[in-house]
Design a protein that fits this description.
220 residues; alpha+beta; elongated; T1-type_BTB; BTB/POZ domain-containing protein kctd6
Length: 220
């Protein structure tokens, strides 16, 4: 009979080429999960050439699995759209609470995007890396708020099922094509009865000034 394997309290995992450092307590927090079984000491786990414990799964998505085990909360970025892939990973690792949390999160996202005839949301995205201002939302809402501000010839509407929603439209303004600043966009939205409901950013170098992407959600 093979002896139980002993694991250190802090260990490194190589998941599909992504290396994570975590604790044994975190990995075994859900004893009914695949990770709980793997790191129970009753199984032998493969190691890579550097001695990291190796799991042949999606390395990028594993961070969401690990963060859920750490906090018991599902925190996904606003632009996240890999629900099918993450659900497949949650099923593989058999983290029951995460499977349930994903279902709830997905349903809440779907309900929030089902807009009534008299209400809606417009998302203002500021891409500082490309120096662009983008608008997402229903076409009629965007035209109502912004068409009178810019020239018709400059209002180029591009149908794009962004973030997985077929009713999502985006209107890009490149530098020089229209002088619409973030402040102007905010003023127009407030003037049409919209309120700022949330915001997020990404690509930060460690402070707010380094943020290269910002997103603001306005709802009426």
């Amino acid at each position: 009979m093979a002896m139980d394997e002993s694991f250190p309290s802090i260990l490194n995992l190589n998941v599909g080429g992504f290396v994570y450092t975590t604790t044994l307590d975190t990995l075994t927090r859900d004893p009914k999960s695949m990770l709980g079984a793997m790191f129970s000491g009753r199984q032998r786990i493969a190691k890579d050439t550097r001695g990291n414990y190796f799991i042949d799964r999606d390395g990028a998505l594993f961070r969401h699995i690990l963060n859920f085990l750490r906090t018991s909360e599902l925190c996904l970025p606003q632009s996240f759209d890999e629900f099918d892939q993450l659900s497949a990973e949650a099923d593989f690792y058999q983290v029951g609470d995460l499977i349930e949390a994903l279902q709830i999160f997905r349903e809440d996202r779907r309900r929030n995007m089902q807009l009534s005839d008299g209400q809606g949301c417009i998302i203002v995205s500021v891409d500082r890396y490309r120096n662009q201002l983008l608008l997402s939302g229903r076409e009629n809402l965007i035209k109502e708020v912004f068409q009178g501000y810019i020239k018709p010839s400059e209002f180029v509407l591009t149908l794009l099922p962004a973030r997985g929603y077929v009713r999502d439209y985006r209107v890009p303004w490149k530098p020089g094509s229209a002088e619409l600043t973030k402040a102007d966009a905010f003023d127009l939205l407030y003037g049409h009865g919209f309120d700022l409901e949330g915001c997020n950013g990404g690509g930060s170098d460690g402070d707010l000034a380094g943020t290269q992407f910002q997103e603001y959600i306005f709802c009426a």
